[in-house]
Amino acid sequence: MDSGRSRTPRTGAAARSHRAARAARTARAPRTARAPRTARLAALAAAGLLATVVPSAQSAAAATPVPRIDLTVLVVDDGGSAVDAITAELEGSGVPYRTLDLADPNRPVVTAGFLSDTVDGRPRAKYQGVVLPYESVFGPDSAEQAALVAYEQGFGIPQVDAYTWAHPGVGLDYTSDGGWSGVLDGATGHVTAAGQAGPFRDLRGPVVFEDNDPGVSESYGYAGRPRAGFTSYLDMPAADGGRISLIGEYAHDGRRELVVTFAYNRHQRQFRALARGIVEWLTQGVHLGQSRNYLSVHVDDVFAPDARWDTARNCTPGDLDCPGGDGEAGDNPVRMTAADAAYAAAWQQSAGFRLDLVYNGGQGEQWRTEHGGTDPLATRLIADRAQYRWINHTYTHPFLGCVQDATTVPWSCAKDTGGATKWVTRSEISAQIRDNLNWATGKGIAVDRTELVTGEHSGLKTLPQQPADNPNLAGALADNGVKWTASDNSREPAQRTVGTGYGAAKTVPRHPMNVYYNVGTAAEMADEYNWIYTSRADGGSGLCEDNPSSTCLPAPLDTATGYASHIVPQEARTALTHVMGNDPRPHYVHQSNLAEDRLLYPVLDRVLADHRALYAANTPLVNPSQKDTGTELDRRAAWDRALDAGQVTAYRIGATVTVKAPSGVAVPLTAPEGTRKQLLLGTAVFGTAYAGTRSAWSTPELLQSAVTLKLPTA
Fold first, then answer.
1. For a tag on the chain, would you pick the N or C end, based on fewer CB atoms within 10 A?
2. CA distances from 251 to 31, 48, 379 (A)
């Protein structure tokens, strides 16, 4: 694999066209026996993939070297959502691929030379797997289809049929022969024993199809009874008490196809649950890239009070855009109590999940001073300090960008007499970072000084008022050894560098959770939610009407029940989508969400429960620190740049995998259990166990120019 990764994202309807379905019906009749090696070599020769036909297995073994299989995937793209979803999974997990766009009149023709060649006298397969929109996309009698079939037979290359219908050409009975077709919303598929022993070993069993809107059909599919040569991996019950397949492997004519008979897109939970297994099947468990289920939750403003939403004025006293706002938390702020702190510690123990407390020591000191010199909350959290991870949030949570002019709504950046922007100084920013670290040290709280979350992510650019970073921010970060500073993923989803040279820091984008900072009760949360997401006619702000990327609620939520019935499942679904998408970015909430009605816990409980119901014990949640997340994103970016520049060469010859990448670029690799990494002398167990495989970021060993793995042979 010497070419860069193709990046041609596509969007499309959930279902393939009727024209494609008709083409699928003309697929050749199945044969179940796998072709012997001699027959496969003959097929290669007939297609021009080998120079000669070897007449016997013995002479074939003697004359033909073991082929080289490049670790890249060929994606044949029809613009539909199924191929787009698989492409997104390859992209997100770091698997190289090449896209062949069927809509491009100048696309390459699929021939023997397009698919394979010879390198150093050894036959080379350029692609380790092929993704097709459906099984005979080039036409069953076309030269391109014949070349592809011969290639798959000759090199043992698997093929995914991204979405097709149940029929004998893919190893299934017609739906009219005891099968089924229709809307799958709310249906439950079951991973079979073969699926759990094979590519879907990361799943516990049941896979529920989303049904987010009862008024909309979200997924259509077919299910058929397996014929000879077909092994079902995901099925559902038939009307007669039997089982009918939704995903399975069809072995025929010396080839293997993964047949998917339901429509999906990249965001739907049923696809997200199955995506890792589809890639494992496609690559036969050996591929570049890796995937984890990540979840970290940052709780901002710990020790600080948060201003409370005013349900009468529909704004937050203390905010600069609220009439009478003065930047303070108001007369009735939301703040955790000692009882809330005790509950948080107990919840962590029962849930098996660790929170990150993003703290403001100075605001805690101010609260203590204003309340008789005592603070039961601080006393309890400090006593339980070892149970949490702690992140510096600056000492008193000031805005660290431009100096804000609150005489305008919204606020603007203040200007000096010459019209230049006034900025918070480097010494002020540095003092906020340093003083908060010193406060934690004095309390015995362990803090990683390389991590920082500024108040409101300030100091970084804030559109539209502040289109550039505070020029004093980078220096202050370097002064204090900060390497990872948080940003808001809704504004800046990509990691970027702040500053230059050795002391530069990098951002760690965080997902904001739609559980608001300025509420303590479920009723307040639903009231503010209504204000934002209902139309003016229904008493809302109309923001949803004015924003083309938003939609309005059909009716306001009941403030007594709306949080539990609507907001909790929606936020849990969003968070779980990130978890299932190999996304290490943390989510962030505020200490107010652990106070009063403790609004965060129902959301997290739902996420954790849904994850446990979907995934086997071999696929636990990974709970990275901010530094770990920053490092992961940084490695991914370097890997993507190397792929895009065509600087990675990776292939498999028999049981040996070789990967060459630019110096300093770590290689993400996934391989079966039992894989060992070649050392200068001997071998060592490769990677970390996850989802039934071994995977890791890897670099060449001492005096070696490539990463070399030895795969298990039994």
1. C
2. 8, 24, 65
Q: What are phi and psi of 588, to 5 degrees?
A: -130, 145
Residue 62 pLDDT level (bands cut at 50, 70, 90): low
* Residue 107 C-beta-side C-alpha neighbours within 13 Å: 17
Q: Are the beta carbons of 151 and 176 closer than 8 angstroms? A: no
pLDDT of residue 6: 54
pLDDT at residue number 318: 81
DSSP 385: G
**What would the mean pLDDT of 422-435 be, rounded to a whole number?**
98
| Alpha-carbon distances, residue 608 vs 101, 388, 593, 594 (angstroms) | 39, 18, 17, 17
Fold of the domain built from segment(s) 18-284: Rossmann fold (3.40.50)
Query: For 353-407, how does the pLDDT look when each residue is reduced to its tens digit (9 = 90+)?
Result: 999 999 999 999 999 999 999 999 999 999 999 999 999 999 999 999 999 998 8
Give the ranges where 480-620 is alpha helix by DSSP (H). Answer: 522-533, 543-546, 562, 568-580, 600-614
Query: Token digits for 695?
Result: 């995977």
The three-state secondary structure class of 152 is: helix
Average pLDDT over residues 552-579: 97
Helices (H) and strands (E) counted in the chain, each on its own, are 19, 35
DSSP structure class, residue 486: E
Tell me whether residue 144 is exposed, middle or buried, using C-beta atoms within 10 angstroms of its C-beta: 0 to 12, 13 to 18, 19 or more. middle
Query: Do residues 6 and 98 lie in contact, with contact meaning Cβ atoms separated by under 8 Å?
Result: yes
How confident is residue 625, by pLDDT bands cut at 50, 70 and 90? very high
Identity of the amino acid at 644: D
CA separation, residue 406 to residues 413, 420, 466 (Å)? 9, 17, 14
- Identify the pLDDT of residue 714: 72
Q: In degrees to the nearest 10, what's the CA dihedral of 324, 487, 586, 94? A: 150
The DSSP call for residue 673 is T
DSSP assigned state of 410: S
DSSP secondary structure string for all residues of 428-460: HHHHHHHHHHHHHHHTT--B-TTEE--GGGBTB
Q: Tell me which H or E stretch contains 26.
A: none
CATH architecture of the domain covering 294-519+589-622? Alpha-Beta Barrel (3.20)
d(CA 481, CA 473): 12
Strands 484-488 and 505-512, sheet pairing: parallel
Residues 6+ apart with CB under 8 A from 243: 192, 225, 232, 235, 236, 237
Distance, in Å, from the CA atom of 580 to the CA atom of 582, rounded to the nearest integer, reads: 6
∠ CA 304-308-310, rounded to 5°: 165
Q: Which two tokens stand for residue 145?
A: 């289809």
Unique residue bearing structure tokens 């491009």 = 104
For tokens 């979840």, what's the residue? 295
> Which residue from 159, 158, 153 is spatially nearest to 50, judged by alpha carbons?
153
Mean pLDDT of the chain: 91
Top pLDDT among 26 and 685 is at 685
Q: What residue spans define the domains of the chain?
A: 18-284, 294-519+589-622, 645-710
The tally of CA atoms less than 13 A away on the side-chain side of residue 633 is 26
Q: How far apart are CA 610 and CA 9, in angstroms?
A: 29
What are the C-alpha distances in Å from 118 to residues 67, 102, 122, 125, 562? 9, 27, 5, 9, 64
Q: Among candidates 475, 467, 515, 517, which has minimal Cα distance to 492? A: 467
Task: Reply yes or no on whether the pLDDT at 285 is more than 90.
Answer: yes
Please give the structure tokens belonging to residue 123: 């036959």
Alpha-carbon gap, residue 97 to 110, rounded angstroms: 16
d(Cα 637, Cα 642) in Å, to the nearest integer? 9
Task: List CB contacts of 108: < 8 A, sequence separation 6 or more.
Answer: 100, 114
